[in-house]
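Entry 12.
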Amino acid sequence: MGEIWTDRAKYQSWLDVEVAACEANCRLGRVPKDAMQTIREQSAFEPERILEIEAEVRHDVIAFLTNVNEHVGDAGRYIHVGMTSSDVLDTGLALQLKASVALLRQELAGLDAAIAKLAAEHKATVMIGRSHAIHGEPITFGFKLAGWLAETRRNHERLARLERDVAVGQVSGAMGTYANTDPEVEKLTCEILGLTPDTASTQVISRDRHADYVQILALIGASLDRFSTEIRNLQRTDVLEVEESFAKGQKGSSAMPHKRNPIRSERISGLARVLRSYVVAALENVALWHERDISHSSTERMMLPDCSVTLHFMLREMTAVISGLGVYPENMVRNMNVYGGVVFSQRVLLALVDGGMSREDAYAVVQRNAHSAWNTNGGDFRANLQSDPEVSNKLNADQLAECFSTELHQANLGVVWDRLGL
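Predicted 3D structure (tokens):
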């Protein structure tokens, strides 16, 4: 990913645009074939030389063209004809964005595979579901991962759309009116480059496309933040249901030898904040003055490479975390049954109602026994129910035992597995 955003790669994208535009003009009979052959074979640049020229002329595209012309000689008079700087800058940038999205899609596919594998392995690994960080009802670890997988696949769809939306070029000249260039040149140039002509560019391609790019990357980062935050919470010492891999020789603390910290997940959460911080700048870039200004340019030189490289790294980190994740089913069972299985309170409530008790009375009975267990060190909800005559009068031992089974909570998850192809 880093190579896509180097100065050399940027200049190469500019050269690709210029040569493609010359090819288009040649097909239309406006560039002699011998001159086109020279441009194809001799076009080159040196980043150091471009910077040297730019120090004098204070214009990056002019510096670039001057350097290219040093290589092609007289044939250079056919380069950049009828074009403006933004035709080169924005169309070249589209090539970089398209290549960037293609790499991000590859990494996301790897993450998809890692999550799907772990989810399939733990379809029936029972754990407690939590709302407000408080124990709710049983789920399975595979079901938790199913939500991550579905979100990852939505991000696949977002990137597929984004790859189309950023792959847009322009060769429309000053103000975008085609006054000094033929629209057919733009069509052919974009065709050569694998791009689509912008519907209606001004002198620049409108920055809503670039804002969309940054927002989608930040959104994918937010998904990774959600996954990593959950792993961090589940790795807490008092929970310890999952754990990042801990390499031989790795150290968790300079002072406390026992520490094994979720550092990669924390890193992902931190970098997600960086991605989100760029969204405001990307949105601010949409409102340029009239047909163009360059207030967006300085921002994009930092923002677009940084966002792309950062998310690429985050995706690789998350894939590594998921692939090496330690899962502790015994701890999941232990945590779920704390206080004698208070999390099965709804099943007891419904069983009492089925046994003829009013819902209000049943709720009060169950809540009383649950809170008694919760508020007592080593409290046992199930034992409380067994000794409560209001419960035993309605439910026999087998009926009560059935309330503490997790089978019901897994019975209908097949619909989720089917939707995800697991």
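Annotation: The chain has three domains: 2-81, 86-330, 337-420. The longest strand covers residues 134-140.
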